[in-house]
Amino acid sequence: MIVRKRGNYFILVKQHDHGLVAGEIAAHINEPIQPLAKTLFAISHHDVGWEELDQTIRWNEEKNRPYDFQDYPLLPKLEAYTQGIARVVANDHYAGFLCSKHYASFFTNETDPAARRFREQELTRQHQLREYFTQTEEENIARNFRLLQFCDKLSLFICLSDPGENRNLWYEDGIFYQGKRYQWIWEDRHRLRISPNLFIQSFTLDIPYQLVDAYRRLVGSETYTLQVLV
Question: Pfam families, per this entry (predicted)?
Fold first, then answer.
């Protein structure tokens, strides 16, 4: 889950829904993407492994709030990562490779034995998957991996921010991509744009979310609609 506080309530956005937002963002970026369909599938489905975990709201007793994607217990999270990557690989080797590379990058300097095993497992998977790549796919690995990471951050900013407000400390200095710094700018609670612009045209983002109170009760499920302007 992506979790943010609003008064006495918690706003919860499921990880896969955030991933779909990242994919929609990528689909509107004004730059060539090769291979297009496989890369967009990877970006849209990079968090598909969270689907089962996010069916249940797991409570962090120490912090008295729902667990989010950062502090969720490591072992079930690693299992979800592994299963999610396998699901993407089953659809396409190249998309699965990009997702595997994304998750392995989380644990580059990790000392936890389970996390280290996960990283080694994914590096082995990546080596095996590369045997299937075309020359075009191979040549675009680095570029498409950076695009996945960039769109992931663009989506995280939106999902972690209260509409119309730039209070996200993660990205207060912008998000860097291809040597440039990009910043989301709110026009109002339902419209925002990115500066400098990098989109082909304006588009709409639909973000489902759940509302949970301090007594751990699910009190509502809604969809927030944003217009991204050029």
Answer: DUF3891
